[in-house]
Amino acid sequence: MEKRLLTLAAVLFAMAAVVPEVSAKRWLVGKMGWTTQVNYTLWAQDLHFYNGDWLYFVYDRNQMNVLEVNKADYESCNADHPLKNWTRGAGRDVVPLNVTRDYYFVSGRGFCFGGMKLALRVENLPPPPVQKASPVIKTTDAPSTILCRRPGVRPAVFAIGALWDAFVRLWQ
Q1: Number of neighbours of residue 142 by Cβ within 10 angstroms
Q2: How far is the C-alpha of 107 from the C-alpha of 32, rounded, in Å?
Q3: Which helix (H) or strand (E) holds 106?
Q4: Which pTM does this prediction carry?
Q5: Cα separation of 89 and 92, whole Å?
């Protein structure tokens, strides 16, 4: 039994070494949460929201709410026909930004007119920076050899080896 647990731990560790980094971010809306007397346009203007990020709204649930609306309702502070009511009752609501598009949020009950509205654009993640090709290293002692210097290759090789070893041990 202990051998199987060690094998499972080795497999999970190897898989974790190979899994790419997740880049989603959870944004607390506003500096002090979803409240009055905050200009959310200024708060969001220098931020970049990407597909997979989350908005975290913290507010007084007895007075305020979080409503997703269209652009026209956002501009006129009309909360009568929201596209989605994200208010879940605890005053701690999370909104997934899982579609690349413009999002519009308001707080109903008159708070939108006091500035409680947020417009933002969700973009796809930019591509990773292009790495320069690694130079080919030749030695004079041996036949022409190309050494792979790309980051992540060695950990991937070791992870595959560990997975294979765990697989073989598991079925012995």
Answers
A1: 7
A2: 16
A3: strand 102-106
A4: 0.63
A5: 8
| Maximum pairwise Cα distance, the chain | 80
pLDDT tens string 3-45: 665 565 655 555 554 444 456 899 999 988 999 888 898 899 9
Q: Between 2-18 and 153-170, two packed helices, what is the crossing angle to 10 degrees? A: 160
Q: How far apart are CA 66 and CA 20, in angstroms?
A: 33
| pLDDT above 90 coverage of the chain, percent | 50
Beta bridge partners of 123: 50
3-class DSSP assignment, residue 52: coil
DSSP output for 151-166: TTHHHHHHHHHHHHHH
> Is the distance from CB of 68 to CB of 104 less than 8 angstroms?
yes
Q: Residue 93 corresponds to which tokens in the numbers above?
A: 């609501």
Q: What is the pLDDT of residues 120-132, one digit of tens each?
A: 999 999 888 887 7
